[in-house]
Amino acid sequence: MNSRHYKSILDRFKKENQTIKIVIFMLLLVIVYQSHLIVSKSSSERIIFLPPKVISKEISITGDKLSKEYLEEIASFITYNLFNTTTELANNNALNILALVDSRAYYQTKKKLQEQYDYIKLNNISRTFFINKINLSNNHIQVEGILKSFIGNKVASHEKSLLDIDYRIDNGRFYITDLNANYEEKNK
Hints:
The protein is α+β, with helices and mostly antiparallel strands and 188 residues long. The chain has 4 helices and 6 strands; from the N terminus they run αββαααββββ. The protein has a domain at 61-187: Nuclear Transport Factor 2, Chain: A, CATH 3.10.450.230. The chain has helices at 2-44, 68-83, 90-98, 106-122; strands at 61-62, 65-66, 125-137, 140-151, 154-170, 173-187. 16% of the residues are buried.
């Protein structure tokens, strides 16, 4: 009788042990699956700088691929801050652009912007830019338009202008790597 009682207790412990092993294994699978979900979701999360204006088009960002609409919106934002300026807004516009500049091109771009805005302040110039066309290619945006410069109420110049923006996308974030403005004077 003792051996029977012993055997039934032993069988019960074996069954409990087996049940516990199965439950632990299932919990381990759940933990592994949840860990995978957390890692995949956290690595796909992106911090994206959106232009601080009303977005007029639907945009999408997938990994390091930005939609055409987003690139057009960011090109408009950069162009607006670079060309539409007055003596009072020059520094603020420069800061808006510098927030998007890649760290490797930061000081070079800052120097270009500072020279441009010093010239604007020295000559008390106001500028406005009218976008005609935005061309997109691989890591390059070209904005064509007309730049009008004013001194007081008089138009000082009326120039066809091209803005070349070289950029890179890192982890879903837009970085300017180079800015070049070219002017073709039409009317003075």
